[in-house]
Every structure is written in structure tokens, then in C-alpha cells.
Design goal:
Order of helices and strands: HHHHEEHHH
Strand order of the largest sheet: 1-2
Shape: flat
Strand content: under 5%
Number of helices: 7
Length: 196
């Protein structure tokens, strides 16, 4: 902090104190929100099943339901994107296909990085071929980003380099592994709640 010999007006001092208090309050509330909405740890899950903790078990069930709903919506979007890419590769690029690709791309751009990427990341196998052309050369990305980041289907097929089918296979394997995890959690959470 730079100190000067100028007097700071009382209103400015009050505003600075208020700003500082507001920042501290926001930080504390954000910390509290993160702890409330954090994912259950494996220890919490074991406690919920073994000890019959109804709250933890209900919370775990809700997490699993949310995961299933998110997976289903993502899989539907992914499946339609893959179908669209296959159709464009076989029949050629048509304006209505480009428009549909733009819609899918918008959905992926707004949902994948914020909601889905961190959930599916552990199941992905990285490959150096998964990249998209950028201003300063190829940019590394994951399998799903490589499918939706090109601006048009034409750009996707031109810069593909023969890796599209391999990407789709790796993406399908990642989705299958993610769904297997959700199924295991669904079977584990099917334990009846015991109230004490």
C-alpha cells in the first residue's frame, strides 16, 4: 500500500471499509456454498450406507439422480452430433446440416466446459491427434472438444486428418466408462433408508 500525506475523506474511508467487508462476506459465503454443495466423498458414502445416515443417503441419491440426468442429456446431444457428422461425411455438406451443427456446437460450447468436462475427464484417453487448428497452430484439446470446436462441418472434415473415427471410438469408450460408474452408484444407492 502506498502511503501519502493526503487526508482521506471519511466517506472514502467508509466506502473502503464497506468494500473490504463486502469482499470478506462474499468470500465466506462462497466457501460455505462450496461445502454445502460439494460432492459427497467416499467416506461420506460409506457412512451413509453403514450407519444408516438418512440425510447422507438421500443426498447421495440426489447426486446420483443428477448425474444420471446430466449423462442422459449429454449422451443425447453427443449421439445427435455424431449422427450429424456421419451423415455429412457420407452425403456431403449441406446447408441444413451446417445449421444443425451450429446448434449442436452452441449447446456443447455452453454446457460441456462448465458442467460436463470435469465429470468425464477421468474416463478419457488423451491422444496427440486430438487438436483443433488455431491462430498459432494446432491447439490440444480432449476428444469431445475436437468434435465440436471447429466452426463448421466443412472445417471439421477438412482438418480431420483421418482421426474422426478414432475420436468417436475414444469418446464412446469414455461415455461407456462414465455410465458404468453411474450404474454402480445407482446400485449402491438402492439401499433402503433405515430411520432410527
Amino acid at each position: 500500500m502506498i502511503r501519502t500525506s493526503y487526508a482521506v475523506s471519511p466517506m472514502k474511508q467508509l466506502r473502503l471499509h464497506l468494500d473490504l467487508a463486502t469482499r470478506r462476506t462474499r468470500r465466506a459465503l462462497e466457501r460455505r456454498r462450496r461445502t454445502l454443495f460439494a460432492e459427497l466423498t467416499e467416506t461420506d458414502r460409506r457412512k451413509a450406507i453403514a450407519g444408516g445416515d438418512a440425510y447422507l443417503l438421500i443426498r447421495w441419491r440426489e447426486d446420483v439422480k443428477r448425474s444420471r440426468a446430466l449423462f442422459d442429456s449429454f449422451f443425447d446431444q453427443y449421439d445427435s452430433l455424431v449422427g450429424l457428422l456421419c451423415l455429412a461425411a457420407h452425403q456431403g455438406i449441406e446447408p441444413h446440416l451446417e445449421e444443425e451443427y451450429r446448434e449442436r456446437r452452441r449447446w456443447f460450447a455452453s454446457n460441456y466446459p462448465q458442467r460436463i468436462q470435469r465429470l468425464i475427464e477421468p474416463y478419457q484417453v488423451r491422444d496427440a491427434a486430438d487438436s483443433v487448428p488455431g491462430i498459432w497452430g494446432p491447439r490440444s484439446c480432449d476428444v469431445f472438444e475436437a468434435l465440436y470446436l471447429p466452426s463448421t462441418i466443412g472445417a471439421m472434415l477438412e482438418t480431420d486428418g483421418g482421426n474422426l473415427i478414432g475420436r468417436m471410438i475414444r469418446a464412446q469408450e469414455a461415455l461407456a466408462a462414465w455410465e458404468a460408474t453411474i450404474r454402480r452408484e445407482e446400485s449402491a444407492v438402492a439401499t433402503p433408508i433405515r430411520y432410527h
